[in-house]
Design brief:
Chain lengths: ~210, ~675
């Protein structure tokens, strides 16, 4: 996130959303991905936002990643962030079974309810595999869940950085394979999903105007 | 996190900060894209060009806020982060909020954050609830006291007298022509209208209902009235705070009440369905406690205070709180409150505060006081009030600049030294005697602190009289009888040659007119200088002017735009602008830049039959468009056609008030009511 000058050009801009229960490590995962560090983080307030540039093949990508709070009190908030997301990452903690069961009880339903993108790519991520001894959810269960919901699946550790980059890269690969999503995210087109400057999407101006 | 300095829980403050951020960003978008206007269907080339231009100026290729330092929500603008800081929102959450503010569609975020705000937090103490209620009651009482100070009827009557007097004196020719040649008149009017096919006159087309359909957020009904009041109170306190840690490379250089903040609060109040007068009441409450506290601080001789201490004290007390704590009785309250206010020369404040007590009772007041005191305002703003009155009225800069013979602010209305946080400057430009600088504005009911600008009265009276003399001359009368004037105007619009008779007439006015134009340009530059010096007390300003007065305002904005161009367009000073019958070329001036200097509404009022203006302004310039008789095709400028309301250029003297009332400048959205 530099200044406006020297801004690297990019071919695609994708919006990615991180959801899941409080404490499963969404923010840690993101921090691990964007700045290669691991830290004890306090619970996220509301939403956090980070940008990451990636190059996949020939394509330069800009990922705008929204990290939502898992805490119950912010639940109402996250609903408005689903719109327009090309990728959604559902995170659970492999050492806490409830965080896994809540995915089908709560989070998968939220996606169905709020996501505006039919083709949006979903990904299931089991975090904290470094704590293998405390594991409460088997990999098999994760795979089964992913198959049932039609989403990608990976197990990773934000702490040891195992599979962290793969998480995001696999997701992005899948998005790139989906034409409807790449069309939305293309930076050349006007349909920039974040572009909220209505100056470019509607032209109220002309209603003011004399025809020249 | 236990926090004794707020009536809201941390989560609620987070939501409040988010809503404010969204409002701020929306307000900036509305600068060029006012709400309530249906999007056009066809994309003609012109608009295409405009769009790419807007893209260039508004945002770079990136889509994150951090890539675009021109955004109001960007860190560099210094508008948002200090507010977050005052709301005690954790810095880690700031970036997310800024990005949220700039991510579409805003409506869903507004709904979600409003819901978050409405939720009854489990950790909210009974005391907080009580204080919340008390503050809301105090605000209501303040509204009452503001309203009772406006004696509407008497003013209306007075203005009616003035209108009749003026109409008798100056409106003769136009009125006559209408009476005599009503048939011809109609025909000609139709002709002029047909000349302007393609002009969509927004008159009446901006129905507030449309806007509501588009914008209303159902979640707002979940919010209690007192919660809304408290949120606005805390946000405003945070806006006024001078606890701005110096942000490096921050483009905002000024302390005080930023016009952009006020516009955002206005939008937020609109979302909340809160009448604007309530926000004004909150403004006054904060101003009063801030001023009183500052005074008491001075009296105690606490000189060795670090800024942080002062801030801590703000949050803790405010004189209202102090008074309530020390006594809790009426005596203690008035004694503690009124004394410093009176000592400071704010005698008028005492009754304002005094009226609160009987309405809500002494114990209620004590509760409200401690509620209000927990989030008091800022030293920067308070200190500016004392200077403000003298600041503007004391500006007799004529001698210093040498170019102008007269340039003086005159206080009008009864809102001075009342702790009002908004200033209105009214500029007349077509005057026959000195009192015409004052009279057109006197009937207006407004809760702002108001000043008129009296400038170059000699020259203005000369040119106005010359024009009037010519209008009443035989030649003009004759022309009017034939309905020729409207033809003249239409030929002007089409850049045709003028009839010789008119040219002669114009010569007659010309020399006086060009002097007046020159002076208005200079007065505009001077006004810009006054505003930049902060003589209005670093408070948001609303500028209203007609005829050459409108030109003064335009030139003022132009000067500001020129000086601020290097550091983006800073619309921090001017909140709203209304130009009526403005003698300003449309195509030769950079309206786009000028528009950006105004944070809120920018209204151009024009009359297609104002041929006086056309004649005075001359044909050569007319072919380039004239703001006073035509709409300005710049996105973000509201064009209001008042052809059916005015009978000629001089009508603005007595019609301005009515036009302003119909514009409802306290409304966030473009409005022009059909009926009063």
């Amino acid at each position: 996130m530099g200044s406006s000058s020297g801004q690297p050009e990019f071919d695609y801009l994708f919006k990615v959303l991180l959801i899941g229960d409080s404490g499963v490590g969404k923010s840690s995962l993101l921090l691990s991905f964007t700045s290669n560090t691991f830290d004890d983080l306090s619970p996220t307030i509301g939403v956090d936002f980070k940008v990451k540039y990636l190059t996949i093949g020939e394509k330069k990508l800009k990922l705008a990643i929204w990290d939502t709070a898992g805490q119950e009190r912010f639940r109402t908030l996250t609903s408005s962030y689903y719109r327009g997301a090309q990728g959604i990452i559902m995170v659970y903690d492999v050492t806490r079974r409830d965080t896994f069961t809540n995915l089908s009880d709560i989070w998968a339903k939220e996606i169905d309810l709020y996501s505006t993108n039919q083709d949006c790519i979903k990904m299931l991520v089991g975090n904290k595999v470094d704590k293998e001894s405390e594991r409460a959810v088997t990999k098999k269960e994760g795979i089964d869940f992913a198959r049932e919901y039609g989403c990608l699946f990976l197990e990773c550790s934000a702490k040891t950085r195992v599979n962290v980059e793969q998480c995001f890269e696999e997701l992005v690969h899948k998005i790139l394979e989906t034409p409807s999503l790449t069309a939305e995210g293309s930076s050349g087109g006007k349909k920039n999903i974040f572009k909220q400057n209505p100056a470019q999407t509607s032209s109220a101006s002309s209603s003011y105007c004399c025809s020249s | 996190m236990v926090d004794a300095t707020s009536n809201l829980t941390p989560t609620q403050r987070y939501a409040a900060g988010a809503l404010f951020a969204i409002a701020l960003n929306q307000a900036q978008i509305n600068q060029t894209q006012p709400l309530g206007i249906p999007a056009a269907k066809d994309d003609d080339e012109e608009c295409e060009n405009r769009r790419s231009e807007d893209r260039k100026s508004n945002s770079s290729s990136g889509d994150s806020v951090s890539d675009d330092p021109g955004l109001w929500v960007h860190e560099k603008s210094g508008l948002l982060r200090p507010v977050f800081r005052c709301l005690d929102i954790q810095p880690s959450a700031w970036l997310g909020l800024e990005e949220t503010a700039n991510s579409s569609p805003a409506k869903h975020h507004i709904g979600a954050f409003t819901r978050l705000l409405s939720e009854e937090a489990s950790d909210a103490s009974a005391e907080m609830m009580e204080q919340e209620m008390a503050l809301a009651k105090a605000a209501d009482a303040m509204v009452h006291s503001i309203q009772s100070s406006l004696s509407v009827d008497a003013k209306k009557e007075k203005h009616q007298e003035y209108e009749n007097e003026c109409r008798e004196k100056y409106a003769v020719p136009e009125v006559k022509s209408k009476d005599e040649d009503s048939d011809k008149d109609k025909k000609e009017t139709a002709e002029t209208e047909s000349l302007e096919t393609g002009v969509v006159i927004i008159d009446g087309s901006h129905k507030p209902e449309v806007v509501e359909d588009d914008k209303s957020v159902e979640e707002v009904t979940l919010l209690s009235h007192q919660r809304k009041i408290n949120v606005l109170y805390e946000l405003l306190s945070a806006c006024l705070s001078d606890k701005h840690q110096e942000v490096k490379k921050c483009t905002r250089r000024r302390k005080g009440y930023d016009a952009r903040h006020r516009v955002a609060l206005r939008l937020l109040a609109t979302w909340f369905n809160i009448e604007w007068i309530k926000v004004e009441a909150i403004e006054t409450m904060i101003a009063c406690s801030a001023m009183a506290l500052q005074k008491s601080g001075e009296m105690e001789g606490e000189n060795a205070q670090s800024p942080t201490n002062t801030w801590a004290k703000w949050k803790r007390g405010g004189i209202i709180g102090a008074a309530a704590l020390t006594g809790g009785t009426l005596m203690a309250i008035t004694g503690g409150l009124a004394a410093p206010a009176i000592a400071a020369g704010f005698g008028a404040l005492a009754p304002t505060l005094g009226t609160l007590v009987p309405v809500i009772g002494a114990s209620g007041f004590a509760a409200a006081a401690s509620a209000a005191g927990t989030v008091a305002g800022s030293v920067a703003v308070a200190a500016s009030f004392g200077a403000a009155g003298a600041g503007l009225t004391g500006t007799k800069m004529a001698r210093r600049t040498g170019d102008l013979d007269e340039f003086e602010f005159i206080a009008i209305g009864e809102n001075h030294n009342q702790g009002r946080l908004a200033v209105e400057v009214l500029v007349a430009g077509f005057v026959f005697k000195e009192e015409d600088f004052l009279k057109p504005w006197e009937g207006l009911t407004s809760s702002m602190e108001r000043y008129t600008l009296q400038w170059e009265s000699k020259n203005l009276i000369l040119v106005s009289t010359a024009i009037q003399d010519w209008l009443t001359s035989r030649l003009a009368m004759e022309l009017m009888k034939q309905g020729a004037m409207l033809t003249v105007l239409s030929s002007l619009l089409m850049a045709l040659a003028w009839p010789a008779t008119i040219l002669v007439a114009a010569d007659f006015i010309d020399s006086k007119w060009s002097i007046a134009i020159d002076r208005s340009d200079k007065a505009g530059r001077l006004l810009a200088e006054v505003l930049q010096k902060g003589l209005q007390g670093n408070r948001p300003i609303t500028l209203v002017g007609f005829s050459l007065g409108a030109r003064v305002i335009f030139k003022c904005l132009q000067t500001l735009a020129r000086q601020n161009k290097t550091v983006f367009f800073l619309s921090e000073l001017v909140e709203r602008v209304v130009l009526l019958g403005a003698p300003i070329s449309i195509n030769n001036e950079n309206w786009r830049d000028v528009r950006k200097m105004v944070a809120g509404r920018f209204i151009n009022v024009y009359a297609t039959n104002d041929w006086t203006l056309g004649v005075a302004f001359r044909a050569s310039l007319l072919s380039q468009g004239l703001a006073g008789i035509q709409p300005i095709c710049i996105p973000g400028i509201e064009n209001v056609d008042v052809t059916h309301m005015v009978e000629g250029h001089s009508s603005y003297l007595w019609k301005t008030q009515q036009i302003l009332e119909r514009l409802e400048i306290d409304t966030y959205y473009p409005v022009f009511r059909d009926i009063l």
